[in-house]
Amino acid sequence: MFNKILIANRGEIAVRIIRCCKELGIGSVAVYSEADRDAMHARLADEAVCIGPAPGAQSYLNIAAIMSAAELTDVQAIHPGYGFLAENAEFADIVMESGYAWIGPTPDSMRTMGDKVTAKHKMREAGVPLVPGSEGAVRDVEEARHIAREAGFPVIIKAAAGGGGRGMQVVHSEAALPGAFNKCQAEAAAAFGDDTVFIEKFLETPRHIEVQVLGDKHGNIVHLFERECSMQRNNQKVLEEAPSPFVDEETREKLCAAGVAAARAVNYEGAGTIEFLMNPDKSFYFIEMNTRIQVEHPVTEWITGVDLVEWQIRVAAGEKLAFTQEQIKKKGHAIECRINAEHPFSFRPSPGRIELYHAPGGRSVRVDSHIYTGYEVPSHYDSMIGKIITHARTREKCIRRMQRAIEELAIIGITTNRELHERLLANAAFQRGDFDIHFLERWLKQMNL
Ligand code: ADP
Question: From the CB of 164, is ligand 1 less than 6 Å away?
Answer without folding.
Answer: yes
